C-alpha cells in the first residue's frame, strides 16, 4: 500500500478521534466490551513474481480471535482485534512449475473505529481502520533455502452485528476485509540457482461468529 493511502487513512482516524473527544462529554462513562470469536480467514491472493512468473496460492485458516472494544458513547467505539493464523504458501504456474514454499504465521493486530446503530437488541455496526501484519515462524518448505516476508501496514473495513441475549451477554457476527501487501524474497539458490522476489497481495476476508460480554 502506498504512503499516500496510509496518510489518508491516518487523517481519517485522526478526524474520527477528534470527533470522539468532542462527543465524550455526552457519555455516562466508559464501557468495555470483549468478544471471543471463531474466524475463517480466506486470502484473496495474487502475486507478481520476478523472473519465473506465476502466482501465489495461500491456504485458508480457521482460528480463534479475541477483541477488545472501548465505547466513547452509545454509538462510537474503538476495537482492537487480536488473532494469529498459519497459512501454507505455494508459487503456482511458474516457469519452474508449482513450488511448495512451506508455511508462515501471520500476526495482524487491527484497530478499527466503529459506529453502532442502536435502538434494540439487534445492533449493527460498521468500521474502518489500520492493520499491522507481522510474519513469523516461517517454514521454507522443500524447495527454498529461505523465505523472508516484510512487515506490512494495511487497512481494514468491517461490518457486523451484536444480538443482545440480556443486558450483559450477546452473540456476534462479524465480517472484515483486510488489504495486505508484502514483499517476499525466496532464496532458492540450491534448487533454482536464484533468489526470487515477489510482490504479494494477501487481502483476506475474515468471517467470524462468537459470543461477547459488556463490562
Automatic annotation (TrEMBL):
The keyword RNA-binding does not apply. InterPro entries: OMP/PagP_B-barrel, OMPW. Residues 1-21 form the signal peptide. Transmembrane segments: none annotated. The keyword GTP-binding does not apply. It comes from the Bacteria. It comes from Flagellimonas spongiicola. This is Outer membrane beta-barrel protein. Keywords: Signal.
